[in-house]
């Protein structure tokens, strides 16, 4: 029941502008049990922040991040399926130790338990999403970032919107959650993808992004957002 906000910019902007949008998404939705952000600046390096409290409650974090210049950013607002997993270890995004990417998930995997033993040595929390993160990390040994993202969902099943911020600033998002659609749009020179507040209509535009243009509903699709480039939307390849 989480929300995801992914943004790339034509020129560096303050992270605080994106957190203002994220605050509205949290207020209007059902998140508030943890939040986090990952971002890349002009150097392309991936950085992240996460806190098991709500975004609204993490005043210190917002103050520390608001003036950070970014060219790409990814925000995750958490409402876990199991409230017993509200802790920092299960808060997203999960960041690769080598700094290659940060990973977020909205939804609920069905078969994460089947792989938990495989990644037991690296798991720090109890949520299904961290299993997806470790699986994605392992798949990058043999697959490119976009097909690996799709394979995570096909391996673990269940419902999923998945997004990764890659070193260099590229965002890859796989939209496949039947009850929280991802919508792509343009706003103030930004390329944006955002989940729909679990609302089966366009209320996310009416309430948060009324000036959005070039609106597109994503349905079982992969979208790539790259700073200073138009978005690319593709269909996942076959199994």
Can you give a write-up of this model?
- The protein has 239 residues and is α+β, with helices and mostly antiparallel strands.
- It has one domain: Glutamine Phosphoribosylpyrophosphate, subunit 1, domain 1.
- 23% of the residues lie in helices and 35% in strands.
- It has six helices and 13 strands.
- Strands 3-2-4-1-10-9-11 form a seven-stranded antiparallel beta sheet, covered by helices on one side. It has a six-stranded antiparallel beta sheet with strand order 5-6-7-8-12-13, covered by helices on one side.
- α4 packs across α5.
- The longest helix has 14 residues.
- The protein is globular.
- The two termini are 27 Å apart.
- The model has no long low-confidence stretch (mean pLDDT 95).
Q: What labels describe this entry?
A:
Glutamine Phosphoribosylpyrophosphate, subunit 1, domain 1; 239 residues; single chain; GATase_2_dom; alpha+beta; 6-stranded antiparallel beta sheet; Class II glutamine amidotransferase; Ntn_hydrolases_N; glutamine amidotransferase; 13 strands
